[in-house]
Amino acid sequence: MARVARPYHHGDLRNALLAEAAKVVETDGVAALTLRELARRLGVSHAAPTNHFPDKDALLAELAAQGFDELARDLEAGAHGRSPEVRLRELGRAYVRFALRRPGHYRVMFGRGFAKESRTRLAEAGDRAFSTLQQAVTAAMPPTRARSAQRVREACFLACSVVHGAAMLLLDGPLAPHLSISPDDEAAVSELIDQATASVSTAIREGR
User: Fold this and answer.
1) Which CATH number fits domain 73-205: 3.40.50.720, 1.10.357.10, 3.65.10.10, 3.30.420.40?
2) pTM (2 decimals)?
């Protein structure tokens, strides 16, 4: 009797596609990522990924949103029961640790634009992470009229610039070797972020 072909069954193809996409981006970059290549790596038909993501952009948008969701959880975990200064330090650590732990997600989150239909999901995920940072920055500001919306935005921009710059330099930049800092050296990375966020906290507190 002739064999009846059975379709390959994958228990959770959607999440497997996202996990594999993060690996490809981390090792080879976004340009190397295709739905066909993901299907080959996961052992499913070329058409199978389109049951979950119509195209590469949709998959990358969900990968970015997934990253923002995880980042938000990490930031929220470091934002309770501490003084404003310590809270900012812990948020800085959490941010950079996330970038080093999930470099594939992180590069997609901040490295490209997305189609209009993906922006609502991304905005919701990003707003949650930013809200935690904004609350911590506002608490660190002096309780005066300096807490205007503009001053809060400026302070948030300063804080984001410091932690994002540190994360990118540790991931991709030439600075880390010159400072004898390895992304794998958690103690050295923590000390670097502590120093950077302490400077940010001082600037915010003094209303610079």
Assistant:
1) 1.10.357.10
2) 0.84
